[in-house]
Specification:
With 437 residues, the protein is of the alpha/beta class. It is 38% helix and 17% strand. The strands form four sheets. It has a seven-stranded mixed sheet, with helices on both faces. A four-stranded mixed sheet has the order 1-2-3-15. A three-stranded antiparallel sheet has the order 13-14-16, covered by helices on one side. The protein is globular and about 60 Å long. The chain starts with a helix and ends with a helix. The chain binds pyridoxal-5'-phosphate (PLP). Pyridoxal-5'-phosphate binds next to helix 6.
């Protein structure tokens, strides 16, 4: 067996090159055009809100590493529990077996999920969570002997990068090569408050013309679109009409889930509850990849049958990995703790005060906030990807802040545990950007 001393030797051999340099030889990064992208930075370790770069600098993780590490990096409450679990049960097939971390997580989640949710189905990431949600909606109708083949979705929604998820995503920036293979999707604009009646009229017309199986939506905040926020009462009316037409409502809470909106789930702001909810990202507190698609009894019952074919034949090798379930369970315990709930209120208030500081600033438009999600658009034309956006990114990195602007949208979605002094550094850096760009 390989000894640790040999691994050290390997490291020594590579010491004359940085991680960034070695990376270029074999690695292909997500969402990256390697020919034009800026250099990729090596991160050596992370703790709390801080990422430690191999350049010797510290960076405040202002987006909780794509909104996953909401309780801070390497939080010992989570790492200790996972370390213990590692010694007991590392991995086992979840088809035909079960285990304590999965059972306990299902019980804990059902306690906090919106009232209709009854069943928990595991997969690996946000895209598979929505893929499963879409498949459940389509098969629900198929199993009832009434095929419906069209999905409804919002313009500019983002639901992931697998085929079903790409199909329903309105924000498929560079998906041209795949579009011929997409499932059929009809889109409606998000309700803004002003356009609600038109959106509802649109929806009724679509329902009369198309056989809609399900409606997938990011409730209240469209993350990848640039933290765009929409009107809760409008969304509620849409959901009511969908429910009345037995269109399965699939809430994609991959981004909004687990406290970020100020409530455990964004769906809690709405009267009408979804049939299916997709969860990932902060589900496992940033420690391990895992996803869940939960559903109501009504959905589950449409699959429960003596007929084998009516079962849901979807499964991933690592479904309900015991380590990931343990991380998720510890995450849920933290989420509902007094300490984290107080932190959420503190960060919310801090962002609100920062928003007031920026009110009326000529470079700021569309300032918006829900819970700990804060965003503004720079009053400067800027394509989603490209040189100007990269300069903005560099400005923050030079200040020791990791923010990842989406075009001209600057957003903050930091760990709940971020210190007030760290928040202030982020705010100052944003104010600096307003002076420069
Ligand atoms: C709302 C939403 N759904 C799905 C996804 C896809 O998740 P993943 O990147 O884990 O596949 C994302 C990712 O950003 C997301 O924001």
């Amino acid at each position: 067996m390989l000894k640790n001393s040999e691994v050290k030797y390997q490291k020594l051999k590579d010491q004359n090159k940085t991680l960034s340099q070695r990376d270029q030889k074999h690695l292909w990064h997500p969402l990256t055009q390697h020919k034009t992208s800026p250099e990729i930075l090596g991160i050596e370790r992370a703790k709390g809100t801080i990422l430690y770069g191999e350049d010797g600098k510290e960076y405040i993780d202002g987006i909780a590493s794509w909104y996953t590490c909401m309780y801070g990096h390497c939080n010992p409450y989570i790492t200790d529990r996972v370390s213990m679990q590692m010694l007991t049960l590392d991995q086992v097939v979840f088809s035909g077996f079960t285990h304590e971390p999965a059972v306990r997580l299902s019980e804990a989640l059902i306690e906090i999920l919106p009232p209709d949710q009854q069943k928990i189905f595991f997969s690996d990431n946000g895209s598979t969570a929505t893929e499963v949600g879409i498949k459940m909606a389509l098969q629900y109708h198929h199993n009832r002997g009434n095929d419906r083949k069209v999905m409804l979705a919002f313009e500019e929604g983002f639901h992931g990068d697998t085929f079903g998820a790409m199909s329903v995503s309105g924000l498929s920036v560079y998906n041209g090569a795949f579009e011929d293979h997409f499932i059929k999707v009809v889109r409606i604009p998000v309700p803004t408050g002003e356009n609600n009646s038109e959106v509802l009229e649109d929806l009724k017309k679509i329902i009369s013309e198309e056989n809609i199986a399900g409606f997938i939506y990011e409730p209240l905040v469209q993350g990848a679109a640039g933290m765009k926020m929409h009107d809760a009462s409008g969304l509620n009316e849409i959901l009511k009409i969908c429910k009345a037409n037995n269109i399965i409502c699939v809430a994609d809470e991959v981004m909004t889930g687990f406290g970020k909106t100020g409530r455990n789930f964004a769906s809690e702001f709405l009267e009408t509850q979804p049939d299916i909810i997709c969860l990932s990202k902060a589900l496992t507190a940033g420690l391990l990849p895992m996803a869940i698609t939960s559903c109501s009894q009504k959905i589950y019952d449409a699959f429960y049958s003596d007929d084998l074919e009516k079962g849901f034949f979807h499964g991933h090798t690592y479904s309900a990995n015991p380590l990931a379930c343990t991380a998720a369970l510890a995450g849920v315990e933290l989420l509902v703790s007094k300490e984290i709930q107080e932190n959420i209120i503190r960060v919310e208030k801090s962002h609100r005060d920062f928003g007031k500081r920026l009110t009326g600033h000529p470079k700021v438009k569309n300032l918006r906030q829900l819970g700990v999600i804060f965003a503004l658009d720079l009053n400067v034309e800027m394509p989603r990807y490209g040189n100007l956006r990269d300069q903005l990114f560099k400005h923050f990195m030079d200040d020791g802040i990791y923010l990842r602007p989406l075009g001209n949208t600057i957003y903050i979605l930091a760990p709940f545990t971020i210190k007030s002094s760290e928040l202030e550094k982020i705010y100052k850096s944003i104010e600096g950007a307003l002076d420069i760009f």
